[in-house]
Write a structure and sequence with these properties.
This protein is mostly helical.
Length: 131
Amino acid sequence: MTQKASQPTAASTPQEADRIRDIIFGPQIREYEQRFQSLQRDVERLQQELDRMHEELTEQDAEQNKRLQAVRRDLRQGDDDLRTELRQTAQALSFEKVDRFSLGELFVNLGTHLKTGGSLADLLTGLVPSE
């Protein structure tokens, strides 16, 4: 009995255990390895696609920022131009319009001229500067 305990049996060596495991589980393990490799390839492909899409999105974002800056610049320039034109128009109107006091004086003179028997034609010829 002591010899049997000291001698390893064929099933107890590591190589034999691997062979038995391969016989029992071999097809399943190979199938799992194939599935795992397939999944790993899919994950790598998806990661590459994700990286490519990220780069495209970054490029589009930069382009949109450039366009937005150009639109802001154009709007700012248009706003400045409009404000300048409005200021010029307001100044021209202020310079060219007749103030209330001058208009009142003109009407008083017109009324007085008409009261004293003058004609409107005489008054109008008096307003036109002679050369």
